[in-house]
Each structure stands twice: as C-alpha cells, then as structure tokens.
Amino acid sequence: MSTATGTLTIDLSALRANWDTLCSVLEQRPAAVIKADAYGLGAEPVGQTLYRAGCQEFFLATLEEALTARSFLPDDAVIYILGGVRPGEEEECINAGLIPVLYSRAAMDRWASVCRALDVASPSVIKVDTGMTRMGLSQEDWRDCVAKPELLAGCHPVLVMSHLACADEPDHPMNREQQQRFVTVAQSARRLLPGIRCSLANSSGIFLGADWHFDLARPGASLYGFDPVADGEPAMEAVVKLDLPVLQVRELSHPASIGYGGETRLPAGRRLAVVAGGYADGLNRTIGREGGVGYLGNTRVPVVGRISMDTTIFDITEAAPPESPENTWITVLDHRLRVADVSRRIGALGYEVLTSLAGRYRRVYREVAQ
Which residues are annotated with the PTM N6-(pyridoxal phosphate)lysine (predicted)? Predict the structure, then answer.
C-alpha cells in the first residue's frame, strides 16, 4: 500500500500491558494522564482503553480538553484539569462535573466564591509547590491555609498534590527533599480534612518506591512506552510504531552531495531511499546530523543529509533492494527504535518526540485482544 504520509500505529494492547505493570507496582489503582491528546496518540481511544482496564480517574491539561474527555468517557469517570480554570470558567467546569487543580490563592478564592454563589460543594484539587517552582501554592501560602482552615474548606478539596522535578534520576537529592516536604503537607491536610487523598508520584516517581506513592499516582509517559529511569533498561512496552513510505529509490552513478546544504557526500554505488516524512511531521531536523536511523525490514539504515520539511533520505545500500519501491516502508519508531533512543540522539525530551508527531500521519489502532 502506498500513501503520501506515514502510518502511526498505536498498540492498545501494549498500553494495557503498561497499565497492568504500573498497577502491579502500586498499592492503589492510579489515575491516567491523557493530556495533549494522550501525548499525541489519541485521547479518546487511549482513555477508553484505560477505562476498560479499570482506570477511573483522568488528568487533562485544559478545560477544553476536559470537556472533550467528558464526551467520550463514561459518566462515572473522574476528570481533573491540571491547568485549573481561568476566571469566568468556573461555572462551566462545575456544570460539566469536572474537578480543577487550584494552584494559587486567587484561584482558590474564585472557586470558593462561585461555589457559594451557586450553593454547591463542587470538589477541587489543591496543588502545593514542593520544589519544582512551577505551579502550586508556595509553602508560605500553604501554611496560611492551614492556619485559616476556612480557606481550604470553602474550596471543597478532595485531593492535595504536588509534582516531582527529577524523578527520572533516582539518585537526585531533590526527590527525597520533595517527598519530605510533601509528607508535611499531607499530614496537615489530613489533620484538617480527614479523608482527603494525597498525590505526588508521576510516572518515574512510581518507581522511586512506596514512600512516594501516597494515595494516587499520576502516570502519563510510562503508559505510552517511556521508560521511568533516564538511560535505564526498558521497563515498559513500546506503544508506538511509525512507518514512512518510500517515494523513490535511486542508485548513485557518480559521487553526489545529498540534501540541502550539500553537507553530506556519498560515493557512486550507494543506494538511497527518499521517504515521505520530514520536520513538518515531527522528525527533528537534527536527526540527520546525529546518527538518525530507521529499519528497512530487519536492516538498520542510516539517515543521510539534512531532513527536509516533507521528506527524509536513507542510505539503504546494506539492505536487500526493494522489489517494489512504491510498496516499501522504513520504520523509524518501534520496539527497536524506542522513543527514548530518539530523544537521546537529538537531545530532546521523549514528550517532544511523541507530541510533535503531526496530523498528516494515518493512525492505526491495534485493539486489545478480548
């Protein structure tokens, strides 16, 4: 089959297997982070697969994402908004049965005010900064809330949370520092609000140990095949496979420069394949300079020359000549070329690799075997 774009295959069985792996490590069933369209893999099929696997709680980034998730998840699914709600969005959030993360005194005051005006006790999450210095109440603001418990009670919190900054580096001292700060936060929260749950661990935090688990873990990346420890052994199954169709095969009859800038020169006799897929499709332009590779069948083939907007060139000399170039594909992501491998090669985060995969790819979902 030939198409003008690549095929992005999402293995929902592998997703389910990763969910089961995380559940086996934890004492309590985790939530799932499906923000950014489930890291580019499709929030609806991913969310529905995880719900069928037993996931009841989901984290999205924005009100818009959460409203969309409400449309495809069952009514009993609990949906949190990591980015909270902006002024004026509170009532829409309440009406949709969504739970915002409140990370400032101003946001807490607005939520409490709207709840009073509507005479409802709509739940929220309180986020406290324990060292990442991104979003969350400062330690001083949290102590103020503890000293004035009516501030907390008016927001009807069901969860208090924080976020780890260095969990993918198990030996980093910040992991223990943040855990100890959060213990203090959790103790004061439980004293004021018996029954409230506490959440600290992201994907990598789960593998730091039980001290980081608390009541609710929030895996995202590990569900999608990211390994929890930087430069560690693969622990999760690869969920994504990306195949790019060959547009043209040519054998060099004389030495030639390859691609923009003429930075790469190859001798006569080399066989090249041009595939559909370039930096407009999420293939980082540095790959050609950083030893980028793909697989033609079982043969590893290198990227040569600069990556263009819509195309990439591979040297396929070492592979068997394609019998039908127009029906030939080169694989650039799978269990052999994991997201972590690509991210290390180009100096990017794995999150960037997945979320940058553009909409021109045809998505194929491999369903969970029943």
Answer: 35
Is 197 annotated as a binding-site member? no
Q: Which residues of 49-86 are buried (b: 16+ CB within 10 A; e: fewer)?
A: bbbebebebbbbbbbebbbbbbeebeeebbbbbbbbbe
CATH number for the domain spanning 124: value is 3.20.20.10
Query: Does residue 343 lie in a domain region?
Result: yes
Q: Does 344 count as an annotated binding residue? A: no
Residue with tokens 């109440």: 137
Let me know if residue 13 belongs to a domain: no
Model pLDDT for residues 198-214, shown as the tens digit of each residue = 999 999 999 999 999 99
CB atoms within 10 A of CB 195: 6
H or E element that contains 93? helix 90-95
Global confidence as pTM: 0.92
The active-site residue, picked from 80, 148, 260, 279, is 260
Look up 260 and say whether it is catalytic: yes
The answer to whether 127 is a known catalytic residue is no
